[in-house]
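SEQUENCE-TO-STRUCTURE ENTRY
===========================

Subject: a protein chain together with a token-level encoding of how that chain folds.

Sequence line: the amino acid chain in single-letter code, read from start to end.

Question of interest: how does this chain fold, as expressed in backbone structure tokens?
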Amino acid sequence: MEDRLSSTTAPARNGKPIGIGAGGGPEKDNPVADLLGVIDELNSYIGLAISCAAWPKTPKILTAVQHDLVDFAAGIGTPDQPLLTALHVGRLERQFENASRGLAPLKDYILPGGSQSASQVHVSRAVCRRAEQCLVSLAGLEDQAPTMIRTRSDRDRYRYGMAYLDKLSDLLFVIARQENKAADHPEVPWQPEREMTLVVDGDEDPYLC
């Protein structure tokens, strides 16, 4: 198998360029480096979720996502390379449909949490939302570049990356629900406008420790 990395060391520090593989990369104090960092954080949290999964399908689904996220990061670090493809997004949409099967319809918003594995997946979902926000910001900055240095591929290269992260957060939500179901842990529905007092109708508030 051909070597893909020129070194096993961590990315350079002290303000020196960082990047994927042997190609170097952006300075640390710019939106590209910020996005790469959040994608790495997301991938790491997903790895943690895999390590404590209760639902048998979680490891296979999320390991494939981890590979996609490395592809995603490589695309970010390569200006002329698109971020993922329609095939990546299509596969994720099918995984979402499959993972949704067997779950009870939601009647109320549920609080993120539950079992340990479900909670880890919810954290991954939150980081995924942050990654999506970073990508939208980066695309907006590049879209403001002078027209003479922009091309159609420059403006469109983020299209599938945005779609992927948007669908990934949905997938992580239903996987978290499957994790709670597999662990036989009840979901906690949100109670709007709950009074935060020590005594409610003569009884102690059950949510206070």
About this structure: The longest helix spans residues 116-143. The domain at 31-204 is CATH 1.20.1200.10 (Hypothetical Protein Ta1238; Chain: A;). The chain has one domain: 31-204. The first strand starts at residue 199 and ends at 200.
